[in-house]
Amino acid sequence: MSGADSDPLKHTPLYPLHVELGARMAPFAGYEMPVHYGQHIITEHLFTRAQAGLFDLSHMGQIRLEGANPAAALETLVPGDIAGLEPYKTRYTLFTNEDGGILDDLMVTNAGDHLFLVVNAACTAQDIAHMTARLDGNLRVRELSDRALLALQGPAAAEVLARFAPGCRDTVFLTAAELIIDGTPCFVTRCGYTGEDGFEISTPADDAVRIARLLLDQPEVRPAGLGARDSLRLEAGFCLYGHDIDASTTPVEAGLAWTIPRRRRAEGGFPGAEVILRQLANGVERKRVGIRPGGRAPARAHTEIQDPDGNKVGEITSGGFGPTVGGPIAMGYVAARVAAKGSALRLMLRGTPRPARVAALPFVEPRYYEAHTTEAHTTEAHVAALPSVKPRRYRG
After folding, report:
1. DSSP β-ladder status, 52-56 and 221-223
2. Span 15-57+146-235: which CATH code?
3. pLDDT band at 137, cuts 50/70/90?
4. CATH fold for the domain made of 285-359
5. In a 10 Å sphere around its CB, with 0-12 CB exposed, 13-18 middle and 19+ buried, how is residue 248 labelled?
6. What residues contact residue 100 under an 8 Å CB cut-off, 6+ apart?
């Protein structure tokens, strides 16, 4: 998902800090991004689950959509309920094509006088072109290239952020607020890509390093790279665009039908509606499922999946070791006939069939902070509510 070999890699505003912290850097979506910071990826993963990890998401696209009724306009491109999104509420949705395929997944926040979108880094240019071409000319699509994006994730995230922005305590899962952090106005959304409580912090690019240092100075916070972000999102059962979802997969096949509410199913009016609504009514031939390989060997993307008789029934799209789970985990698409939880499968690892079973997603119980609670809480709808980048999306 990086740029062409001839294209120079871009740097986020936090690049100097990554280098200072000894990060191992690698290409990702056209950027030179930190994979880990000298520690093992497992260490960063487990610390985020126990305390808080700070991730650089500045490669992802931040977009402002403004004009007359941008919510109604965006609904012509996505199957989600954007018109019903209350001020300072956030929703996960999908850009779809005329065949019902997923062009990108994104987070949309009603920021009052405009919509704030976070899209996948590799899809930013095409998403902007898509909206510009398809939406009314009175609407303005503006990339916020002068902003950085930080993700503070983990059970200690709220306690840490409240030291500098007490108003964060008034937010709950999938809500946003305009907060001042160390004198800097930031747009903060309580969401993430790890299955933990946490925040995504949009800040002016020039202030990003200072705010990151401020958070990293707290004993409960350590930097975490793309490696831990990938293993955390896989345990949480979140899709990675370009791997688990793409233009050849529909929301129904991907297990994302919950993103299409009753009103949009009744009204249609989004790209691919005919295909998607037909699948909702009649079912699909393949489904995205969780998979638990037997033994200790992980099954990586493109691993062939077979039924017990040796017939090919699908392919792994994401796989690796789950540090919290303590063993290999994976996601992939299989024929609907073998998609039930507990169904026996075989994975072809280096030409050798290995046993596996269909498992429920997510692999770890998510912990999101909701209203009228003093601790993280889970509902079925929340399990899949955080892709993108956003990413998307490692939402990315």
Report:
1. parallel
2. 3.30.1360.120
3. confident
4. Elongation Factor Tu (Ef-tu); domain 3 (2.40.30)
5. exposed
6. 250, 251, 252, 271, 272, 273, 274, 275, 276, 279
